[in-house]
């Protein structure tokens, strides 16, 4: 069993690692603090059996990392581990391909329960009644996010990295320096991103990402 943990908070990442080791003592664990680190591991190593993914990562925007990860690796099971405990966010996470959602306030036993459920091919939420609540109270943003999710899924991993850097406000030359490529390469990526995202400029691309934010937004 090969498990990848993605969380930018060192203390919680350590605690989560310990909890996973207790649930699966024989598992091989890998850790990273960013989406860039996630893709680097996936590029260089065999695909893991499971990913535990935080939503609040420095180089992601809301559900963007989850959406793109599920598109690039559709067979890879993902468990979201997040400080957000709203049922609407849990619903949206499952709608974007997560198989389980663990609030960071949950006891360690929930981590074991979620992992065992996902490895058995099931979905898992911290409260069984949440499934009924989600069914009765669908989040209105779900349909608004579906089109954006499809567009994000068409981006290559490198284009996704560039888009996240655009969202941070970095210039082409700064992105080129960070990724160790030419500025002309970044310009080509940006052009492809605009085409795939169906936008005309950086501002529109960043605004489109707003639909995947975790905070409540006006529709």
TrEMBL record:
<keyword id="KW-0597">Phosphoprotein</keyword>
<feature type="domain" description="HTH luxR-type">
    <location>
        <begin position="148"/>
        <end position="213"/>
    </location>
</feature>
<dbReference type="InterPro" id="IPR000792">
    <property type="entry name" value="Tscrpt_reg_LuxR_C"/>
</dbReference>
<keyword id="KW-0238">DNA-binding</keyword>
<dbReference type="GO" id="GO:0000160">
    <property type="term" value="P:phosphorelay signal transduction system"/>
</dbReference>
<dbReference type="GO" id="GO:0003677">
    <property type="term" value="F:DNA binding"/>
</dbReference>
<dbReference type="InterPro" id="IPR051015">
    <property type="entry name" value="EvgA-like"/>
</dbReference>
<dbReference type="Pfam" id="PF00196">
    <property type="entry name" value="GerE"/>
</dbReference>
<dbReference type="InterPro" id="IPR058245">
    <property type="entry name" value="NreC/VraR/RcsB-like_REC"/>
</dbReference>
<dbReference type="Pfam" id="PF00072">
    <property type="entry name" value="Response_reg"/>
</dbReference>
<dbReference type="InterPro" id="IPR001789">
    <property type="entry name" value="Sig_transdc_resp-reg_receiver"/>
</dbReference>
<protein>
    <submittedName>
        <fullName>DNA-binding response regulator</fullName>
    </submittedName>
</protein>
<feature type="modified residue" description="4-aspartylphosphate">
    <location>
        <position position="54"/>
    </location>
</feature>
<feature type="domain" description="Response regulatory">
    <location>
        <begin position="2"/>
        <end position="119"/>
    </location>
</feature>
<dbReference type="GO" id="GO:0006355">
    <property type="term" value="P:regulation of DNA-templated transcription"/>
</dbReference>
<dbReference type="InterPro" id="IPR011006">
    <property type="entry name" value="CheY-like_superfamily"/>
</dbReference>
């Amino acid at each position: 069993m090969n498990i990848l943990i993605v969380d930018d908070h060192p203390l919680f990442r350590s605690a989560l690692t310990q909890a996973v080791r207790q649930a699966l003592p024989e598992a091989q664990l890998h850790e990273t603090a960013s989406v860039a680190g996630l893709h680097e591991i996936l590029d260089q190593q065999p695909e893991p059996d499971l990913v535990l993914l935080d939503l609040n990562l420095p180089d992601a925007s809301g559900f963007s990392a989850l959406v793109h990860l599920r598109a690039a690796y559709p067979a890879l099971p993902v468990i979201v581990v997040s400080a957000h405990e709203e049922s609407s966010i849990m619903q949206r996470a499952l709608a974007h391909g997560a198989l389980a959602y663990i609030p960071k306030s949950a006891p360690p036993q929930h981590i074991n329960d979620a992992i065992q459920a996902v490895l058995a091919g099931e979905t898992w939420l911290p409260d069984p009644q949440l499934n009924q609540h989600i069914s009765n109270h669908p989040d209105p943003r779900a349909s608004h996010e579906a089109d954006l999710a499809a567009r994000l899924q068409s981006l290559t991993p490198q284009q996704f990295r560039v888009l996240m850097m655009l969202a941070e406000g970095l210039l082409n030359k700064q992105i080129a320096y960070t990724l160790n490529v030419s500025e002309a390469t970044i310009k080509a990526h940006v052009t492809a991103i605009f085409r795939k995202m169906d936008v005309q400029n950086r501002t529109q691309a960043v605004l489109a990402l707003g639909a995947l934010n975790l905070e409540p937004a006006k529709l």
